[in-house]
Design a protein that fits this description.
Strand content: 25-35%
Helix content: 25-40%
Structural class: alpha+beta
Radius of gyration: 26 Å
CATH class of the largest domain: Alpha Beta
Largest sheet: 7 strands, mixed
CATH architecture of the largest domain: 3-Layer(bba) Sandwich
Number of domains: 2
Distance between the termini: 25 Å
Number of helices: 14
CATH topology of the largest domain: FAD/NAD(P)-binding domain
Bound molecules: flavin-adenine dinucleotide
CATH superfamily of the largest domain: FAD/NAD(P)-binding domain
């Protein structure tokens, strides 16, 4: 079955696909948007814990781009065409004002991710994008001639569709239940594209120690965590300070998610040894004096009963579990100077063994995707296959959490939609 020829076919109705389709249609193109789910924007609707960290409000584009690491040098042109302020204005114009929180993370004022999906869906439908949901693209239809490989259409479970330009917006491989299963990327290798293997990123970490699991649900807002290999070599050691969330399998929260990329590299050589400094702002000598003061005031209490006065809220039991039962029950006046020092050392460096990541189902994004050297980022066009374009998570761009992923979707979607 063939269903006519479109100017543009967008495969994937996520954040970047909707932006690309809406933009192309707004420019008068006849656009078909193909989505295998029964609704658009399934992943977008769960972003930011249901609130959607819609962008990062860093107004200095150079500073914003630094967050994209190696990819930054490829992104100047697309961000010059559609940067943070353009996305901000885009949503404001569509009655979705944005508010800014800590670390310039920006959210819709209504604090609703589905509201963002609704705006994007309307952007498509109000510009007459033809939607085909429950339609799964199975492969690209290509032609060769004149020394080039051209894409001319898409084979789907509902038939073949032909278009002048095809935008691949099928996403990465994280949270497969939202539809991002990575098959779009598997098609590309056969066309000579270098596709970096998807790998979970911005992902929680699993740990060996049971005390962590007993703290499940506890968030500690100001901790420093240091990661290193088994030998604690300087070359591998790195630290992060911020919020740690303890879970039933290990650790999570923004600090952990943003460290996951580097931790994964260390994990390739075996377990990673981490330590948590519960008082990163306090010198060890000052902490020692503080502990001594608490000891002096509570000489006749048992050590385990005063731990809550020297540990951050919620951690007393975890620290108690690290002591021998005899020491935990000892009266404070009988605790030796060495044991007291060992306790201070624990507060400054609570050991933790990182055994792995929680994998793709828990990853906010997947690393990997099309190598940017093979994309003309002024248009998002493939340099290998004529008339093929890429947007969003299909591209190999590593970035932290904080609104940087969706900003990429708005930017690359807009640029591709403007070029086709
Ligand atoms: C839990 C979670 C929270 C997040 N929170 C944030 C946040 O607050 N801020 C932020 O910036 N980023 C966040 N992200 C990352 C962000 O959601 C993604 O970067 C973004 O959604 C990627 O959009 P995309 O359009 O590239 O791909 P996706 O959103 O993955 O969309 C791809 C679409 O293509 C469809 N598709 C795939 N294959 C086919 C096929 N063969 N045929 C037809 N359709 C197909 C899929 O069903 C899907 O709808 C979060 C991610 C997760 C998982």
């Amino acid at each position: 079955m063939s269903s006519g020829t479109y100017d543009v076919i967008v495969i994937g109705g996520g954040a970047s696909g909707m932006m690309a389709a809406g933009r192309a249609a707004e420019r008068g193109r006849r656009v078909l948007l193909i989505e295998k789910n029964k609704e658009l924007g399934k992943k977008l609707s769960i972003t930011g814990g249901g609130r959607c960290n819609i962008l990062n409000a860093e107004s200095d584009t150079r500073a914003l781009l630094e967050n994209y690491g190696e990819a930054a040098k490829f992104l100047h042109s697309p961000f010059a065409q559609h940067g943070m302020q353009d996305s901000w204005d885009f949503f404001l114009k569509r009655d979705l004002p944005i508010v800014v929180e800590a670390r310039k993370r920006a959210f819709p004022e209504v604090q609703s991710a589905p509201a963002v999906t609704k705006v994007m869906r309307n952007y498509c439908t109000s510009n007459n994008v033809e939607l085909k949901v429950k339609t799964k693209a199975q492969e690209l239809i290509t032609e060769t001639g004149g020394g080039e490989l051209r894409v001319v259409g898409v084979r789907t479970n509902q038939g073949d569709y032909y278009g002048q330009k095809i935008i691949l917006a099928t996403g990465g491989s994280s949270h497969a239940e939202t539809g991002s299963t990575g098959e779009g990327l598997t098609w590309l290798s056969q066309y000579g594209h270098t596709v970096h293997e998807p790998n979970p990123n911005l992902v929680p970490l699993t740990v060996e120690e049971d005390w962590v699991k007993t703290l499940s649900g506890t968030t500690l807002s100001f901790m420093k965590i240091t990661f290193a290999d088994r030998d604690n070599t300087k070359a591998t050691r790195f630290s992060r300070t911020g919020k740690i969330l303890f879970t039933h399998f290990g650790v999570s929260g923004p600090l952990i998610l943003n460290a996951a990329h580097q931790v994964k590299q260390l994990l390739a050589a075996g377990p990673v040894y981490a330590s948590i400094d519960m008082y990163p702002d306090t010198e060890v000598g000052t902490l020692r004096n503080r502990v001594l003061e608490v000891f002096n005031k509570n000489k006749n209490k048992s050590l385990k009963n005063i731990l809550k006065d020297i540990t951050p809220a919620g951690l007393a039991e975890a620290v108690a579990a690290q002591l021998t039962p005899e020491l935990a029950e000892s009266k404070v006046h009988s605790v030796s100077r060495e044991d007291r020092q060992a306790l201070v050392d624990r507060l400054k460096a609570m050991p933790l063994t990182i055994t792995g990541t929680m994998g793709m189902d828990w990853a906010v994004i997947s690393d990997g995707g099309v190598d940017l050297t093979e994309v003309d980022t002024r248009t998002m066009a493939s340099k290998k296959v004529t008339n093929l374009y890429f947007t969003g998570d299909v591209l190999n761009i590593n970035r932290p959490s904080g609104g940087y992923s969706l900003q990429l979707c708005w930017t690359t979607g807009w640029v591709a939609g403007s070029a086709v």
